Amino acid sequence: MSDPKTVRSPTDQERQALEAMTREAVGRVAMRAQMILLSVRGYSAPTIAEIQDIAKVTVYKWIDRFDEEGPSGLYDQDREGRPRKLGPDAEAELERVLEEPPTEEGYDASRWTAPRLARHLERELGTEVHPDTVRRALQRLEYSWKRPRRVLPKPPGWKKRLEQIDRRIEETGPETTVLFEDETELRRFPPLRWAWMPVGEQRPVSVPDQNGKFFLYGALDVGSGQVITEAHPKGKTCYMKAFLETLETVLAEISGPILLIWDRASWHVSGAIQDLIEAHGRLEVMLLPSPAPEANPVEDLWRLLKNQVAANLEKSLDALEAACERFFEQLSPEEALRKAGLSAS
Fold it and tell me: 152-163 burial string, b = 16+ CB within 10 Å, else e?
């Protein structure tokens, strides 16, 4: 009889924390995170126990702990009744220094790590603790270990422009179709992402002698969750016109005006596209401020696509294009809205 005990499905944030723990945490904590990720993939507790060379009861223990407390539950906990090794003063110091890079405290480093924070507490407060103790304190203080994101400086008036777009969307009635549109470039040289492989080995990803690319044009209907995509060789006015014609064909059965929101790419604001918009009877266009990629929910779908379909891919450019098409065919409207940050359900 198969073992039915598997861990609950982690949230996206919990999964990222688990993956970070396998890379950054020490010893047993990293192993526990690996155990949970294996359970998420469907491995049974007995199989995980065999892989990790531990008792089944240990696997069950950490699955239960994760189910109740999430990633923070995988750290060793202080014994009941023992005072915390890091008191309020130390926790306050952690929160203070994490507001600025280590260079502000005289360290020749660009980021705070648990070992560096432990050394800082010893230097400033005389508190000697293990880095794992610092990690547990950071979990209590609701900090997480994750990769930062790049941001571009915002031009004057960008926030006001976004507010105008938000108001315009709120003013639309049910007869109006609101579309966000964007393009992304996909290359034959694949983006490389973390993957499981044997310890001590680094799996190679074959690339062709010459790179290749195509542009994927996409529009998201914020009302229905429908995603419309079309591949073209590059970002160019003629291909933008072709995609607008595709949108018109797909939306032909929908009456009423269309509010189209996109960025200021040259093929969006060209004279030919402006003439087409003016000649169109029911098309209204609003331009996003530049640069503000985070304001376009289609960008979130592109990131999801590239992580799931393009990462580590060892196939032809045609196969990559076909994989992108299948991805959006299988993406439900509800999932599209959720992944684009337009629905919490």
Answer: eeeeeebeebee
* DSSP string of 105-146, one letter each residue: GT-S-SS--HHHHHHHHHHHH-----HHHHHHHHHHTT----
Amino acid in position 174: P
In this prediction, residue 204 carries a pLDDT of 66
Task: Determine phi and psi for 196, rounding to 5 degrees.
Answer: -75, 135
* 167-189 pLDDT, tens digit each: 999 999 889 999 999 999 988 76
Half-sphere exposure of 84 (CA within 13 A, CB side): 14
Kindly tell me if the per-residue pLDDT of 295 is higher than 90: no
d(CA 4, CA 69): 21
Is 288 in contact with 261 (CB distance < 8 Å)?
A: yes
User: If we measure between CA atoms, which residue out of 230, 273, 270 comes closest to residue 249?
Assistant: 230
What SS3 class is residue 340? Answer: coil
**Residue 248 corresponds to which tokens in the numbers above?**
């018109």
**Distances in Å between the alpha carbon of 228 and those of 91, 325, 329, 333, 340?**
49, 10, 9, 11, 14
pTM above threshold 0.70: no
According to DSSP, the β-strands at 258-262 and 177-187 are parallel
SS3 287: strand
